[in-house]
## 1
Amino acid sequence: MKQAAHILLVDDDASLLKLLGMRLESHGFRVTTAASGREALERVEASRPDLVLSDLRMDEMDGLALFQELQRRLPGLPVIILTAHGSIPDAVSATRQGVFSFLTKPVNRDELFAAIDEALAQTPRGGEGEQGWRAEIITRSPEMERILEQAQMVAASDVSVLVTGASGSGKELLASAIHKASPRADKPFVAINCGALPEQLLESELFGHAKGAFTGAVSQHQGLFQAADGGTLFLDEIGDMPLPLQVKLLRALQERQVRPLGSTVSMPIDVRIISATHRDLSRAMADGDFREDLYYRLNVVNLKLPALKERAEDVPLLAKHLVAKVASRHKAFVKGFSPEALNLLASCAWPGNVRQLVNVVEQCVALSSAPIIPEALVSQALAAEENGLPTFNDARAGFERSYLIKVLKITEGNVTQAARIAGRNRTDFYKLLGRHDLEPSRFKPGAESS
């Protein structure tokens, strides 16, 4: 059975607030009330509604200011504004900014419910309704819908989930959605990138440390396992975790307790683990870079996100959503892309996936001087993106590959000599070559002509 839509009603007139609230509840809606814009924002933080119905004239923060702040925090949340001071300029201003409807008090009952029904019909149900857990994932792709169905099923249990997919495909967003759909939703969701920190710092961040555990540890530090207690810990780029830490992580998951660095006392933990990687962990296990026992503990369920180029039907949808989100923060007059600009966006390969699309949209909004972004501006942003800086991980991988090719050329494919130049043993050097799909025999004299 479909849950009743949740409406946040905002008015600084207590009697009208009570009267309209009773009318909405009698119509079957679930109603939360707020006597000011500030109070409304607090209510939204606690529970996202499906629709906001707000008075226009209120002290401190009026209805339009509330709408603008809601758009910044929750783009796409429909807002209907009511006013006893109805005027054409107010209505035009409100609707231009994206307010769904503008009604004059005293409100006609039929007009009010017609506007509410229309707003709810055109907007995916969010908040604590049926789709609240996935409200941030914008898609119409059948493949993404299949993954989201699996994610919702898996969320109900406490099994570990491994999310795989290319960088920028939305792995953390899916992990957060699983958390929101789970029984742990009211507890913390804590994320850490395991490839972004050196080993000792990563160990301290995960497990915590006692005062004096190492130089600079001037006080006790609570680790992320404890910070996420009762909730979900998201381990991004788990494939980049150093082997010694993999051992400690496995022990923590098996024993369901952690021992901070420098401490002799273990502490119980209750966390759900979701991990993610863009690396091929099967290959990493074969190379000895990733523990097989840890892999099977983390990979109880595997959800593989498609690249953006594999869900091209989502590009216009995402672009429209992102432009509204970005414009609400920076340039409210920007309303969207021209049809030609959307076609150009949809036809791109998007090697950087959704993260790259976000960058392009942000550039377009920043440079736009008109409400509709033209095709030429999209072309310019795409060209700038191609010449932009890579991520740290991409830059490091690019340097590694270039360096390996160089030493293989110098040594004419002699792995022993190349490993000596690189300062690595043969085993480690072979692992590096495998990671970058480099075959030493290709660099031997005469290999090109053979």
## 2
Amino acid sequence: MLQQTMGIHHITAFVTDAQDNVDFYAGVLGLRLVKKTINFDAPEVYHLYFGNEVGSPGTAITFFPWAGARRGRIGGGQVGFTTFVVPQGALAFWEERLQQFNIPFTRTERFSEEYLQFKDKDGLQLEIVEREEGPRSQWAFGGVTPDKAIKGFGGAVLYSNAPDKTMNVLQQVMGLEKIGQENGFVRFKAIGDLGNVIDINAAPVGSGIGGAGTVHHIAWRAKDDEDHQLWRNRLLQNGFQPTPVVDRQYFNAIYFREEGGILFEIATDPPGFALDEPVDALGEKLMLPEWYEPHRAAIEQGLPPIQIRVLGEDKP
């Protein structure tokens, strides 16, 4: 039986200002900051995770806010649009909310679904679609209540330098099913109910440049450590060179670059973000892996202060 991922685990992007990042994803989009930690490879930079009430796999968008970072260019070899999904009937609420916060957006349609497309403060391309499938978020913040809240990822639009090769990886390696093609896009679906719909350009897209406002990598779900090892073996058998397993504290990860230029990660569902904090206090304290704890004072001193705050547009 072909090994199949449930879909997207998380998506990680570069931005510039940490407080702007928090204000947009928590203040405007109503996501919960579920983990405030550091980039384990560059501890002078935050790693911020936003998702549903516990940051479940399929809901977590994560950021490296790097002050003064160069602006990237979205293009081939990257995620083009990160897709959020909201409950059926909630799209009109989000249209009004984007207008309320003076965020320009466009309406578009793909595969008989309506999308609102917009950008964050760094130019990262986002879109919202409504669907019935997938559990609702239980998180409420500002003007966003659970009946309207982002449930997690609807999926993503991939921009590939070699779409035929990327599509082959999606089908033959990751186990997604091709379900449609129209207007220059091919649609694939994973077996999960969040982060499960992937659209990809049918023709090559000019290469992008990494930097603020671009996605660094897209991560796919592995059920557990045993499944994770099977994925690594599968990648090796298919001619890829995955990294060794990397401990990311809240999941284990392997990375590989598929032939269309996109950096893929495969991440384990467990242990999750409640590993080192109680659920009701997620995201409140800077959490460090044990090997950085001796340097906490210096790390905290070097990071800009951030706060989760209700924005003025949501205040009476």
